[in-house]
Amino acid sequence: MTIKEAQEQVDGWIKKYGVRYFSELTNMAVLTEEVGELARVMARKYGDQSFKEGEKDNLADEMADVLWVLICLANQTGVDLTEALQKNIEKKTQRDNKRHINNIKLDNQDGKGFESK
After folding, report:
1. Which of 3, 7, 18, 73 is a Cys-bridge partner for 14, taking CB atoms 3.0 to 4.6 Å apart?
2. Rounded distance between C-alpha atoms, residue 22 and residue 4, angstroms
3. What is the model's pTM?
């Protein structure tokens, strides 16, 4: 599925089952909530916290929830996410094409960077 197809599929779902989009401000709040739920799973799976009894590792589902709401916001505000992502990659390439390569904090092989002493 392309990003464009995802935007079209979410829009079709909203029109068929969702009655209408929530307001942009409500969806922004929902996006924040979904990012928090993703952060909770990340903290338990990769961080120092453990899963509580009954909690599950639903990382993919939480990421999909974040993407869903982001797509809703893009559809509501007329943003073509394919075009926006392409422009963002170009921006980062121009701005950061040497920044990370020359960052001594990223110069080790374990991916964790160097800790300050």
Report:
1. 18
2. 21
3. 0.86
